[in-house]
Amino acid sequence: MAKDKRFDPQQPQAFLRYLFDVAVARAQPLLTLPDYLPPPPKGRTLVLGAGKAAGAMAQALEKWWPAEAPLSGLVVTRYGHTPPREAPVSEAEEGLAALPRTPRIDIVEAAHPVPDANGLAAAERILALTQGLTADDLVICLMSGGASSLLTLPAEGLSLADKQAVNQALLASGAHIAEMNCVRKHLSRIKGGRLAAACAPARVLTLAISDVPGDDPSVIGSGPTVPDATTCADALAILKRYQIELPPVAWAALESGARKTGAWETPKPSDPCFVHNQVQLMATPRASLLAAAAAAEAAGVTAYVLSDEIEGESREVGKVHAALAKSVARHGQPFAKPAPGKACVILSGGETTVTLRPRQPGAAKGRGGRAGEFCMGLAQALQGEAGLWALAADTDGIDGVEDNAGAFVMPDTLARAEAMGLKVADFLDRNDAYGFFQALDDLLVTGPTHTNVNDFRAMLVQTPGPL
Predict the structure, then answer these.
(1) Which of 58, 128, 321, 333 is deepest in the core (most CB within 10 A)?
(2) What's the CATH superfamily of 28-153+188-230+266-283?
(3) Nearest CA to 274 among 226, 224, 215?
(4) Confidence (pLDDT) at 131
């Protein structure tokens, strides 16, 4: 019988895609959520949530919640990210009972990464649903990456256009996710613990899929139901550091909050509204990386997980990964005695950033995201090193704003590009990873995966000697 090429390290591209699929499957809500559900409360159960995985999380909750127990609510997810009900959400779910055909939780869609009117309307509806809650009620908040943009409710005096402009500036600035979300919290009426305050005195259980380095619940989706330790002064410092403009009313309000005289400060850990709140992480980047590592080991490939918390400029992180991979390819495996002829895979995750370069007048706009930019930096630094293959992709299935999850890098990537008259440096200059890897037919296109544990990177290294 022919060996399945997905499990065969001698078929590098298929093998790397297989590891990505394993990592994504480990974070599927339908498989992970049941372990964290509480018993139904004395009162009613209200489900609220946001994020790129929110639709799948809501459907999973509907499936596993007792049919006789009351359940209602609303979640908002990205356009096109609501899973179909007539089929399993992923290959990993085959054989499970079908999802309920009659939803009890409304799922609406909105824009990401820049918010739109649908996200604003959803946030207003979510806040309105908290009216009349009692101590006998339970609020289950479903949070995943993307919620910061999808759940937008500008602070008093700000418009949706103001929030859109700030979001666009933050995305282009190179600020890391904790910095961006600190600002977002302080310009919002629902983030940074404010949703929890609105739910009091009900008990709040937050079930989260982490997409942030360190798995800090207050950073995931800007923590609508989680205490916020950051301050207005912190937000001001970040805005000044990255030279991001704000309307005068926002500057004045943040400065007032920094003096502890304003109303824009977020609820802190000592606030009594959090007394009956609990947070559970359903899925994390590290758990998915470890699942991929176990799959590699089962295929006879030694696996190393560098870290699930890697941050920094994407292209520079790619260069560092290239240096490590070249060392392994030339001298043997890391962290152990050399094993000639033994393949290994090096895995990492986290959330890198892309600082957009200024465009020349009339120049085409670059297309691409963190994973693609990492791959360009990696390919440029590898310079066609033999025995090295890599995949970098976003586990939500969308790298930036295009239709790809990420891209592959192979030993002949640069040679094929140069044969087509393409220079990777030119594409890096305009942040156009999509254009570069599309021309090579090396994009990974998966469609929405209905989960999100952020960046996934895998480098397959052939150490000296035959496989």
Answers:
(1) 58
(2) Glycerate kinase, MOFRL-like N-terminal domain (3.40.50.10180)
(3) 226
(4) 97
CA pair distance 289, 89, nearest whole angstrom: 20
pLDDT tens readout for residues 66-99:
999 999 999 999 999 999 875 444 544 454 445 5
CB-based contact 292:303 (threshold 8 Å)? yes
Report CA torsion sign: 55, 176, 152, 38: positive
pTM of the predicted protein model: 0.89
CATH superfamily placement of domain 5-23+285-462: MOFRL domain (3.40.1480.10)
325 SS3 class: helix
Q: Alpha-carbon distance 160 to 278, whole Å?
A: 31
User: Measuring CA to CA, how many Å separate 282 from each of 106, 206, 288, 329?
Assistant: 21, 10, 11, 36
Question: For residue 128, which of 190, 79, 70 has the smallest C-alpha distance?
Answer: 190
Alpha-carbon gap, residue 212 to 120, rounded angstroms: 24
What CA–CA distance (Å, rounded) separates 268 from 241? Answer: 24
Write the single-letter amino acid at 384: G
The two tokens of residue 317 are: 């992180």
Residue 418 clears pLDDT 90, i.e. is over it = yes
The residues that bridge with 392 in the sheet, in sequence order, are: 407, 457
Name the more confident of 327 and 118: 118
- Domain limits, the chain: 5-23+285-462, 28-153+188-230+266-283
d(CA 8, CA 23): 17
> Cα–Cα distance between 122 and 82 in angstroms, integer?
15
Residue 70 to residue 88: CA distance in whole angstroms: 25
Is residue 311 a contact partner of residue 350, using CB atoms and an 8 Å limit?
A: yes
